[in-house]
């Protein structure tokens, strides 16, 4: 599934419910760098490793003026359970309507084990303090990914 967005494009605005209650929006991060990572399903092995890696690096990201937000189509209740079960320290947003996921081009047809279904392609974006997309990682491989994103955030 090809991404609709390109590096240099303005990040599409969003407002989503988040773990712990309340909402989170792109405007909340104005003037700071934001790692926006999309994961297919809370509490699955790859998504858990990715969330744990970003949580472990949270302080290092903060030291270079960068926030982190994970987004999936899971309901907030599932995000809360995921956070609590694995001791995650980064905010998790829920897009059950898929509107934001579609705006970012990460929701679409996927196939696994010969079955076709709709879902999220694991993708990460680094958004600059100006609200523009500085870097895109499509079809992310989890191992080592948080370190690679931290290096890019540090260089930005």
UniProtKB/TrEMBL annotation:
Reaction(s) the record says it catalyses: a hydroperoxide + [thioredoxin]-dithiol = an alcohol + [thioredoxin]-disulfide + H2O
Name recorded for this polypeptide: thioredoxin-dependent peroxiredoxin
Family indicated by similarity: Belongs to the peroxiredoxin family. BCP/PrxQ subfamily.
Enzyme class at the top of the EC tree: oxidoreductase
Subunit structure: Monomer.
Originating organism: Rhodoplanes serenus
InterPro entries for the chain: AhpC/TSA, Peroxiredoxin_BCP/PrxQ, Thioredoxin-like_sf, Thioredoxin_domain
GO terms of biological process kind: cell redox homeostasis; cellular response to oxidative stress
